[in-house]
Amino acid sequence: MFEILKNHIDKIIPNEDMDRLRAIHRVKKVKKGQVLLSEGQVCTQTIYIVKGCLRVYRINDNAEEHILKFGIENWWINDGESYSTHKPSKSYIDALEDSDLIIFDESDFSGLLESSPALKSYADDLSVKSYHAGTERIYEHMSLSAEDRYNNFLKKYPTIFNRVPLHMIASYLGVSKKTLSRIRAK
């Protein structure tokens, strides 16, 4: 399974760093519905998705789920806030499909980042892209109609749409399931 990650970043990371990355990885197979992080736990792992689909979400005081992000093959996922601050998470991460994952513990991964400029640069690039995606999503929520947000979601994430229940897409878009159904009927 590590070969899939290796192929994904092979041109970026030198062989000696790849060997060190291989030495600290752990493979995990999870079933659909399995929770990987719960609210109140500290996120101490970063996850590379080899196969499957995960989500990061929060639950508000009315027990409503608000999906912050999805993750599919060749994506990295964690609760960035808890991971970087070592404070309890406000979020959950669970599997929407049976998934094959590569897990890196924060202590091992951080040490490797400190000693590998190429891997550090790659991780920084991922963080910047994640930040920009989050900023763009906030802007879209503030300035675009529900229909435009839906159309943007389809363009940006066409492979996720068919893998995720509609009520979760509605949650991600910040609309009701009824509104999403009406938009899709157009």
From TrEMBL:
Superkingdom to which the source organism belongs: Bacteria
PROSITE patterns cross-referenced by the UniProt entry: CNMP_BINDING_3
Domain (Cyclic nucleotide-binding): residue spans on this chain: 5-113
CDD domains registered for this protein in UniProt: CAP_ED
InterPro entries (alphabetical): cNMP-bd_dom (IPR000595), cNMP-bd_dom_sf (IPR018490), RmlC-like_jellyroll (IPR014710)
Name recorded for this polypeptide: cAMP-binding domain of CRP or a regulatory subunit of cAMP-dependent protein kinases
Organism, scientific name: Pedobacter westerhofensis
